[in-house]
Records
---
Amino acid sequence: MAALSPWARAGVVAVAALSLALPPPLSAQRLLDQPLFPQQLELPDRPPIDTRGEFLLRADEVSYDRTLEIVTATGSVEISQGDRVLLADQISYNRRTDIVTANGNIALIEPTGEVLFASHAELSRDFANAVIRDLKVRLHENSRIVATSARRIDGTRKEMLNAAFSPCGRCDREPGVEPTWRLEADRIVHDETTQDMIYTNATMTLFGVPVFYTPFFRHPDPTVKRRSGFLSPSVGQSSNAGFYVGVPYFWAYQPNTDFTFESRVFSEEGPQALTEMRHRFADGQVRLAGSLLNGRRVEGSRITNDRTWRGHIVGEGRFAIDEDWRAGFDLSRATDRTYARRFRINNDWRARPNAPIPDFATTALYAEGFKGRSYYSVENFVFQSLRDFDVAERIPKVHPLATASWVGQPSAWGGYLRSDNSVLALTRQRGTDTNRISSINGYYLPFTSRRGDVWSIAATVQTDGYYVNQLSEGLTQPYSGFVGRVHPQLSVDWRYPMIRRLEQATMVIEPRIGAVVGPNGNNSAKIPNEDSRGFEFDDTNLFGPRRYQGFDRVASGQRVDYGIGASIYGASGGAITAFLGQSLRTRKDTTYAVGSGLEDRLSDVVGRVSVQPLQYLNLSYRFRRDQDSWKSARDELTATVFSGGQVLSASYTQRDRVLTRGTSQPFESVSLQGSSRLSEYWSAYGLYVRDIAAKQNVRAALGLLYRDEDFAALVTVERDFVNDRDLQGGTTVLLRLGFRYLGDIGG
């Protein structure tokens, strides 16, 4: 043999290696027990080199047998052929047969990023066809294939014997770790053209234990993000609807549009159809989902044998009009209150299984804009009541509610102008129609004096104009016509934080006084109350000049608000904070409802206490006490323990009256919930809720979750104690398994 010159080395057409002694074949299990990829192999970080349209060869030594026409390269051999790179300890090329043979630490790097490892391979000149022994493949997203032998056909199809496929998202992070699950088969075909993985006589192992066998199985390869086809079935048992099974089908209609169709059959109700559509625009997205079932009719809390159509539809849309404006809609409608919970509708975030049943379904259409320090919005609302006692004709429609807010630039003194404006049109089929124009304009001046006391001064004027039709609430006879209001208001808020440093702590005491001056009354009975009903007096709005959130009610009259806060912060991180406050009005009127805590001249006392003696313990107590008897009007107590991944929280809530179905009733409940990170992949949670006032348990649940990069399993046991119409309380056991690339299954 004669050694090639350096010029001949750079111009050889192809290189291969011929193995004289091949090792015996390994089983797939033996391959799985070995390191998946040789640690000593270093893949090139440069792109393939194509010299004059042929290839480039790099090796420690190259020789040529002129008689047999075999070129042999040994020692760190690298061949770049087009978009592929072949690495090996030894490569031989037979010029007569155009066969490349490689031995030892073989790595074939594909243009897609896929890498094939082997101990021995015979390849065609362009590396597109090959016979491989002891194959190991690293696919997209670090998924793996091992096989005792394989054939590569046209560079797009691999046929592998005694093979196994597994995802291994944590293999790089935890070298040597076993994949959570794998599919072992007598034969695996990877069709790169159709992007399919096809198995013959496949067995799934989970944590090393065989759990499932199938003579034939097929799924998309890891490069596929979405594809049309049947999804994993849903199976379950419900005490309200019986046994059910569902088969969903996913249709990838376009790259930016897809549909999901599912047919479910309930043993006690019959078939149900569900669908979901998702579409993405260049500047937005739309999602619509719905279901339909011809089930048994519900009358009150009784289920009859008559059939009726029940269903729901939900959706949302979000659109970016330009850099300053965006628009969207929310859609939510249902035939009845309990439909979504009864039939386990889980594609609606507003009606998740075991979530609280909402009182209203809200449909909205809106547009909003942001410009500098200004904000604009136009909203339209349609409400559907899901409560038995509401009259549909009395539910309002809002078309529109338009708002515009503007904040001016601060002056040299720090003061600024602000304007908040609103236009409302609200109609009912039966009842009051309201049309309103409101504007609040004012000057705000926050500043801190040289002594350190903090001031906030505001002078505002609220102007409202109404046209109402058939207003009857609070009147002896209905009123229709125009009514207006001008309400000026001046407010001053002062607080003086005083700090004292102790040996092991820092103490802060902060007295606070606020004064509000405005005309009395100004809440005429001829002005409807549409947006100011959800008022609750507590320490967060004690000093608010406008205590109501909406425009329809104003905090009229003159008053003084006062309180004191105290805090101690320990050097080791512990802290105690407290606040106590009250309000005094100059006169008693009907500005605030009876039971609000503000109906008398001297208000109830509100306060809060928060104690964190240790970094992992927090105690919080908020309260409102009657100013005469000191009787509790509201108590909210929460205790939370947290350490690392462990959280345990207990809460108690008591209110002396809550408006329920038009009547005033007491409310008292206790809840306990917690979660624990048992290990890196295991966690658990629990929940318990009891209505003390009704002497009834509400809900209890326990759950266990395992989650790693490739597999997730959730098992929960939930007990619902509350009956609602046709929805009966009961126990639900949920088991759901999720496999990377395969989807999830459960019910």
---
Amino acid sequence: MLENWEAWYTLGTVVLLMVALMSNRVGTDTAMIGAATMLLVIGILDPMHAALSFAHPAVLTIAALFVVASGLVETGAVNMIAGLVMGRPKSLVDAQVRMFIPVAVMSAVLNNTPIVAMYLSIIDDWAKKLRVSPSKLFMPLSFAAILGGACTLIGTSSNIAIAELYKDYAIQQGVDVPTTARLFWLITPIGLPTAVLGLVFIVLFGKRLLPVRREARSGEIDPRCYEVEMEVQADSPIVGKSIEAAGLRALPGLFLAEIERGGSSLPAVAPEEILRAGDRLIFVGVVESVVDLQKIRGLVPATNQVGKVEGDRRTRSMVEAVVSHTSPLVRKTVRESKFRTAYNAAIIAVHRNGQRIHKKIGDIVLRPGDTLLLDTHAGFVEAFRNSDHFYLLSAVGGARPIRYERAWLAIGIMFMVLALLVLPIGVVTARINAAIGVDILPREIPTVGASFLGAMLMVVTRCSSGTIARQSINWQVLLTIGGALAIGYAMVESGAADMVAHALLGVIGETGPRVLLGAVFVLTGLFSLVITNKAAAVLMFPIAVAAAVERGYHIEPFIVGVMAAAACAFMTPLAVPTNLMVAGPGGYRFTDFFRLGFPLTVIAAIVTLVIAPLVYPFSG
């Protein structure tokens, strides 16, 4: 055992990594970097390979594609494309079908996180108009994005990471390096039928498997409504006016629930009730109407924390923030958390799965999934975008203007990137080189090159500004993948990957390659439950390759198996960011994802086991 101490130390580090992530006490990126550091200080991971892991083509490609996606979002191209398809649904099934098409297609070529973020409000509105529980639509929204992302190379960051590792392996082994076009479609024979069957399954059986966690609304109030206390100031022009004369009954999606006056409560507010200075008005309604309330002179949030937020009042904005399960705010009252001091932001309302919270803001005990409506400085979203304290941050006030006049330009740039990745560019460049007699043009443009070209053009053409482009990059994702790549390299160099592969082969015995492929799929899926799908894909790659090589099989079907299992991570809200994004607004419980996610995972596994060996033979 002492002879293999490096392998055992590496495996022990991976086990500690999983324990840390399962505890929900540290962020994924922090845990990954911490594990890589443990391997670095002991000498198993050398500094050069540690540094190169964070500058790996997979990491750079994903960063560039975040910028490309920002250009499509900033110009309204994503909304424009969806608007042509989505229309106005007439039933739950119609809504699901109309939603699936644009979300799945766009997720195949864009990062799915901004897509889901943009359509949360649209789907929320659909649920209200159709009078169905929003929990019947939010999870299908996330799963449609996941299934669409599993169809191409750039649909999900785990696919990009695996493809780059495959290229590295081919170079090291001195075999033919797969072309960019081949890698782009490598997962498609499995991902596309999985997506089609998965979406059909959701349409047919989702109504029974999806829970009703929030009741359907009649259309009067938006599902994500807030209870907001506003105070009438002494110099307000509405003092002495009736509720109706002050215009407080005409705001859409909002109603005045009660008035607190001199220690007493008026729960049934008549339209002729006269407003007095110092009245506390308790409104319930949508965030847009809350913004309108802020514009009424002399009507201010009742909390005194708003005036203590630092920064120019003219540049302040409103932000919605969803509390994460790892946030230090959880299980503390707003007052105990010292929220305003810690974040330079004041909580003016809390939304919790459609429930009214009958407490003062300072006395509310925060829970994971609570959506906070904040009055804060203009840089709050940028400052805490990658913080693990919040699942999702969304600016409400002072939104940037959409550059619709550049939408088609952004779409053109996206199609150019796709053309460089998909088309056989080498045939064209070879003919040009032959015509001019000089071998000057490359045989193909690598994935990272095409992605950076698209990102640069998005900024140069002002589809996305430099500031927005930088802010659009999810550094937590990049650090997670970089750390996982470093750990994966250490697993290969230390012999830990071979050790795990040998143990896996010992468990399955002298069975056929399909059993091994199934084992690889299951193991990758289990890893995805606890260490996110991106990290699971990178860590399983060397294990799957080592197992295939030991048995003398071609590695491609097993690489595709890792891709498929990592991409189709449905069963917990922790596996992929989009699941986390819909968990709170949909009011889902942890086990709800398993009810629908497990059969979808089974579908993905069956498709992989049936089709992968046909397209990518085990031998021959």
